[in-house]
Structure formats: C-alpha cells, structure tokens
Write a structure and sequence with these properties.
It is found in: Cytoplasm. This protein is α/β, with parallel strands linked by helices. It is built from 8 helices and 11 strands. Bound molecules: 1-O-pyrophosphono-5-O-phosphono-alpha-D-ribofuranose and magnesium ion.
Length: 211
C-alpha cells in the first residue's frame, strides 16, 4: 500500500516532472516513454503516480484522490481549486498574455470578445480592470480566433512566442507569470504530515542542488 499518491500532468511537463522525481531518488521501473499506462508505483512502493490531464490535476488533489500534484500555475488558477501550493519547481515557465493583431487598442472596444482555453483567468483579469467582456471558450488553437474573426483577442499561454509570431499576432498585455508547482491536498497535509513534509523537503533540496 503506497504512502501517498501524486498526480502528474500529462503532456509537456510530464517528462521533466519525472526527471525531477528521479533526481530525488524516486524511480518508477515500469515507466517507459511509450507506455499508455496511467498508474505506476515507485520502486520502493511508497509512492503511487497517476497521470492526469493537466487541467484535472488540481481537482484530483482538491478532492483527495491524489495527496499531491505536479501541475502548471495556469491550471491551478483556472481550476480555482482549494489546495496548498508548496513549491515552485521553476520548470514549464511561461506567461499568460492577452494577444491580438499588432496595434490593436483594447480601450477602443466597448466590450471585448475573448477566445480562450482559460475562461476563469480571462474573466478575473478583465474584471479587475473593470472591462466588459464576452468569452468564447475554445479547447486549443485559440490563435485562430482573431484571424478568423471569432474573437477580438485571445488570453493564452505564451512560451517561446512562436505560435503568436507564426500566426501574425502579438502580445498586447501581460497577465501573469506561470511555472510548474507542487500542490498538496489540505487534509493530507495534516493527516500525512510527516511523510508529506519529508517528501517536500527532499524535493526542495534536490531542486536547489539541480539549479
Ligand atoms: C500552447 C498555448 C500556445 C502555445 C504557446 O498551445 O496555447 O498556443 O502553446 O507556446 P509558444 O509561445 O512556445 O508558441 P499547445 O501547443 O498546448 O496547443 P493547443 O493550444 O492547441 O492545446
Ligand atoms: Mg495553443
């Protein structure tokens, strides 16, 4: 029986997250790059690892289906999950931005139509600015929206900037910096405090050593 379960976001940060776990001595023998399996146990059987769609990681952790999670700040903000955020892993660094066609003045719009995979983040940002908006929720390729005329601008993640550039769009406003975080279920943090605290400390130490 594993001591605790860690939910890791599938996709871009998965490999890096596993490498970080490996550097702190946690290895998963059955884990191979081509595997379609979603549940793995560490070699010493103390940790159960589950691969979850990134946006669902905060939900798994909030509900206690996982004790901890490794996921981007973007998905933590979007999910609004009630969890402890205990470590910044300093990987998967990027930013949230409002992007659109070059020279676009956001003030010129009475109400902005925004295409995004992150409706909560977009709503919160523009409500802080007191700007009326309408959201078009998309699930990917949001850069298409201003080109095709589905929306005025987008709120999305910008990492290298290549996707914007190759689609003739630019950052109009920066919203927030993002990186991968370690999150913890609130009840687990209290009930399994020794195991979890020791995991966090080892993780922190190996992060400091690797930078
Ligand atoms: C993400 C994000 C941007 C792009 C940013 O899209 O939504 O489109 O990456 O990265 P860049 O600045 O380095 O180009 P993703 O590739 O995850 O695809 P999707 O939006 O279609 O899901
Ligand atoms: Mg995209």
């Amino acid at each position: 029986m594993a001591e605790f379960t860690i939910a890791v976001a599938k996709g871009r940060i998965a490999d890096h997250s596993i490498r970080l776990l490996n550097t702190m001595g946690v290895t998963f023998e059955q884990l191979t790059p081509s595997s379609r399996k979603l549940v793995f146990y560490s070699s010493d059987k103390t940790i159960r690892l589950i691969f979850v769609k990134a946006i669902d990681v905060p939900t798994y952790v909030e509900k206690g289906a996982a004790d901890m999670g490794i996921v981007g700040k973007d998905n933590i903000l979007e999910s609004q999950a009630d969890v402890y955020e205990v470590l910044d892993l300093k990987i998967g660094t990027c930013k949230f931005a409002v992007a659109g066609k070059p020279g676009q003045q956001l003030d010129a719009f009475q109400s902005l139509t925004i295409a995004t995979k992150y409706p909560t983040v977009a709503r919160n940002y523009f409500s802080r600015k007191g700007k009326p908006i309408e959201i078009v929720k998309l699930n990917g390729s949001v850069e298409l929206a201003p080109i095709i005329g589905l929306a005025d601008v987008i709120v999305d993640i910008v990492e290298t900037g290549n996707t914007l550039k190759e689609n003739g769009l630019v950052v109009l406003e920066q919203v927030e910096s993002i990186s991968t975080r370690l999150i913890v279920n609130k009840a687990s943090f209290a009930l399994k405090s020794v195991a979890i605290q020791s995991f966090i400390n080892t993780f922190k130490q190996s992060l400091e050593e690797s930078t």
